[in-house]
């Protein structure tokens, strides 16, 4: 049975789904709104065609294309580049709330997602050390999503389109990478502690 990561097309699928957004951010800084919208949509189509040609799962690329299509539609209708970032802001806000609530109900999403990706089941919740590690990791992810909403939301309200695009890129993979590294470190540390009979 394919894991969640397999269904997402692996790491390359996750990266591919975000390429159109990166193209829009750069194109909007260099050019104007309409060329940026066109460039982002074209990038989404090219990524989808490329994955089909390589016989790779297209679902991530199609999801990314639909997402960039929605963002492009909003930007086009509002006539403002900042409209392109509105779906991402709403998504980050939703994720911040979802991750925080998951901690409060003692089902931290970092653990649910981690074991969903690896196909390991949800027995980890019976291990206090793992539950604590995933709780800390989930709180960090909550902070990541919340910081995006706060900072990018302020830039959105101030209509600072260029800095909003820069913030979108800077707070994308870099922050995600740091949170992922912490999650991996915390989980591996908890696994080692669980295996130690002296603990």
UniProtKB/TrEMBL annotation:
Chain segments annotated as transmembrane: 12-30, 36-53, 60-78, 84-105, 133-151, 163-187
Organism expressing this protein natively: Pseudonocardia petroleophila
InterPro entries in the cross-refs: UCP010219
KW Membrane (keyword) present: yes
Keyword terms of this UniProt record: Membrane, Transmembrane, Transmembrane helix
Protein name as catalogued: DUF3159 domain-containing protein
One Pfam family matching this protein: DUF3159
Keyword Transport part of the UniProt annotation: no
Domain of life: Bacteria
């Amino acid at each position: 049975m394919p894991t969640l990561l397999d269904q997402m097309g692996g790491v390359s699928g996750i990266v591919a789904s975000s390429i159109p957004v990166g193209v829009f951010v750069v194109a909007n800084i260099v050019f104007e709104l309409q060329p940026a919208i066109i460039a982002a949509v074209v990038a989404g189509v090219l990524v989808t065609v490329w994955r089909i040609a390589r016989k790779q799962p297209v679902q991530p690329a199609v999801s990314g294309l639909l997402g960039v299509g929605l963002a492009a539609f909003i930007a086009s209708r509002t006539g403002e580049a900042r409209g392109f970032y509105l779906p991402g802001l709403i998504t980050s806000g939703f994720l911040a709330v979802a991750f925080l609530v998951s901690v409060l109900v003692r089902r931290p999403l970092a653990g649910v997602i981690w074991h969903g990706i690896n196909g390991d089941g949800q027995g980890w919740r019976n291990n206090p050390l793992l539950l604590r590690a995933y709780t800390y990791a989930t709180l960090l992810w909550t902070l990541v999503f919340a910081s995006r909403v706060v900072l990018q939301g302020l830039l959105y309200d101030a209509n600072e389109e260029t800095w909003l695009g820069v913030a979108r890129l800077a707070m994308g993979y870099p922050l995600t990478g740091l949170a992922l590294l912490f999650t991996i470190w915390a989980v591996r540390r908890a696994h080692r502690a669980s295996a130690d009979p002296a603990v």
